[in-house]
């Protein structure tokens, strides 16, 4: 028993001496000089790493253009979206229940407010249609901010929310707005031929969709709105829209609708994204 106690005292004494040896003035087995050299080494080492990282970031930032991405790895054909916004691209409402479609109307009102003719006249240009609005820089001289073409709300006619404040939802003739996603430098047409949108139902719903009306006429995205130069270079850019109005869609049934872009420079779908240049959504109009 006494031998065990002596061994415990000896082990405890060895640990205390390892932590601080008063004879050699060593802390954890090292002298003050040794600890100082180690700390100096790591200080220099991490300062060197921080300097290398800062220099690398600085050189990388020098290669960036604040107005245009240096590298773009995007689909050749942009995607499409619809308004009003809806969960899972599902536009469902009851004609007789205002609460079921009031949110869609409010969403469209908010979305179209920057398209008011008075605001467009103040901020954007009245451009020449059917030709690209090219605004190149002159060497090192930046042509910024770049101007933008007017897209007036009245161009959407029956789907503008001006003559029909409910966009047809109160009569079972809803308007859906379609927009092409922005891609810097994209030219979605040539030779004076603007891209246009078509919509239709999937095969099993062909007899349900009824006639459609497009605004602007023929559902075109006019060439004058392209190319897009980026949010910072073209601060007042107004994205062109196409409105599709369902004039006599079947009631109380789901209709799978597909819309796609047609262009002489853009391919619909790709190996990377079969939905490039197209969008599908569900429409259901209930009478009660």
Walkthrough of the structure:
- It is a single chain.
- This protein has 288 residues and is α+β, with helices and mostly antiparallel strands.
- The protein is 25% helix and 18% strand.
- It is built from four helices and ten strands; from the N terminus they run αββαββααββββββ.
- Strands 3-5-8-7 form a four-stranded antiparallel sheet.
- The longest helix is centred in the first third of the chain and has 31 residues, at 32-62.
- The radius of gyration is 33 Å and the shape is elongated.
- 25% of the residues are buried.
Contiguous helical run count: 4
Percent of residues in helical segments? 10-25%
Measured between the Cα atoms of the first and last residue, the distance is 93 Å
What would the principal axes of the Cα set say about the shape?
A: elongated
Helix/strand class: alpha+beta
| Strand line-up in the sheet with most strands | 3-5-8-7
Average pLDDT level: 88
Radius of gyration: 33 Å
| Main β sheet profile | 4 strands, antiparallel
Spell out the helices and strands N to C: HEEHEEHHEEEEEE
**How many DSSP-defined strands?**
10
Uncertain runs: none
Offer a quick outline of the entry.
By secondary structure, this protein is of the alpha+beta class.
Question: Features of this protein?
Answer:
288 residues, alpha+beta, 4-stranded antiparallel beta sheet, 18% strand, elongated
